[in-house]
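Our platform keeps sequence and structure together, in a single record for each protein. Such a record has a labelled line for the sequence and another for the backbone structure tokens. This encoding replaces a full spatial description with a residue-level series of whole-number codes. Below, we set out a record of this kind in full and without editing:
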Amino acid sequence: QVQLVESGGGLVQPGGSLRLTCAASGTIAYTYTMGWYRQAQGKQRELVGTISSSGSTNYADSVKGRFTNSRNDAKDTMYLQMNSLKPEDTAVYYCNADIKRSGTHRRDDYWGQGTQVTVSS
């Protein structure tokens, strides 16, 4: 079994910062690309950013220059540093990872349960 757990969400004022954490646990042999997605109320889930196993990053235009994705493979953890937050960043943020489980040749897509980020004064 593999589990992804997000943490670090909360209420922050416009212009503020938050750091989200995604911790993976279970029988993990290798973690490929990891990513953050978000879903605002009444809207479809959208990509925020991804980070490959080599550390290459990709971001949605709406967060470029404000959000930074990083990972620590020794801890099976990914982070999203969010700066200069705007009310339109309000959403549930989900962690996603492409993982190969120990003892198998399969790669599967895993999702966390989400963490709420609310940007409001």
